[in-house]
Amino acid sequence: MIKGLESIKKWIAVLFMLIFCGFSWAQATGAGEVDEKDVPIKVTEVAPGLYFQYHHQESNNAWLVTSEGVLVIDTRQHPKRAEELLVAIRKTTDKPIRWVINTHAHGDHYFGNTVFKREGALFIAHRDTAGMMQHHFGLEMKRRQGYFKQMQFDGKAVQLVLPDITFDSSMTLNVGGRIVEILYMGAGQNPGDTFVRFPKERVFFAGGPFSKESWPNPSFTPSIAGWVSILETIAKMDVDIYLGGHGDIGNKADVLHEAKMLQDFDQGMRAAFAKGMSKDEIIRNIKFESYSHIRNYYRMNLFISSYYHLLTTGRAENAYP
Ligand SMILES: [Zn+2]
To answer: Which of 83, 84, 107, 274 is deepest in the core (most CB within 10 A)?
Structure first.
């Protein structure tokens, strides 16, 4: 009788744990940033007419105001957030929105596209970003349902707006006398990762591959070594200011710090894998604690799990194509 009672108690405990973990999972993967305090949105004019919007809890943007119109980089996580971005842009200019660059195909960076489409913008993205937008749209919507719910945003308001123009390696725009270089250097965090360089201003928007003081999601990369090499290459460029898809304004040291963090993660995972450790053993024993103060560290178990998938199968967990 007592044994039976103990067993029931155990099952209740397990059930409680599952419900509890399920709840935290939904919160953590949906909103993404539930463990963080609310940092106010900050807009900085990093060069004349070139603005950077830093939103700690969600994702970043930049826009360039020229005599011919405005060029916007990335559109945020939902049309409501894109409307807020438009309000911020309108505080700096009343010129028309002419171009939008989508740096990568994660929903938190392009789900606001419809708002800028309505404004009449021409959308530019790398060929693989365009492909990933179509291939992963369902996955991206699924990943963000918790966020929509938490913010009380209507998920159905998000519509897939694909680029009007795609490129393979690079494009240079002369926009009202301002030079904008749109570059592809291979897959970093994602196939199609696009960089936007403002050579005269010595400013570089690094989209997916660089986020200052933030653990990036490794479930899309085909190679962390390739990603590290791209970060090392961009750190050598004639650039002073590095703007990431997440995190505050960065410099060369911040880019190299992320490269080192990813390299340590790669090496730590490879060493554990070579010893024959299972995914669960790695999660239990390898903590990458020297980087535990970095944003998103609480998602480390998911990162290990994703990278383990790449090590065992040779393909990213969220592979494209
Ligand atoms: Zn993001």
So the answer is: 107
Which domain range does residue 208 map to? 31-313
| DSSP classification of residue 3 | H
**Residue 122 host element (H or E):** strand 122-126
Distance (angstroms) between ligand 1 centre and the Cα of 268 equals 24
Would strands 42-47 and 50-54 be described as parallel, antiparallel, or unpaired? antiparallel
CA 304 – ligand 1 centroid, Å? 18
Residue 209 forms part of a structural domain: yes
pLDDT band for position 38 (50/70/90)? confident
Q: Is residue 22 part of a domain?
A: no
pLDDT tens, residue by residue, 294-318: 999 999 999 999 999 999 999 999 9
Tell me how many domains the chain contains. 1
Distances (CA, A) of 131 to 49, 117, 134, 191, 197: 32, 19, 5, 9, 23
The CATH number that applies at residue 142 is: 3.60.15.10
In a domain, 7, yes or no: no
For residue 12, report the distance from its CA to the centre of ligand 1, in Å. Answer: 37
Rounded distance from Cα 109 to ligand 1 centre (Å): 6
CA 188 – ligand 1 centroid, Å: 13
Share of the chain above pLDDT 70, in %: 88
- Find residue 97's DSSP bridge partners: 70
Task: Please report whether residue 301 resides in a domain.
Answer: yes
Residues 180-194 pLDDT 10s: 999 999 999 999 999
Find the 125 Cα to ligand 1 centroid distance in Å. 16
How much distance in Å is there from the Cα of 174 to the middle of ligand 1?
28
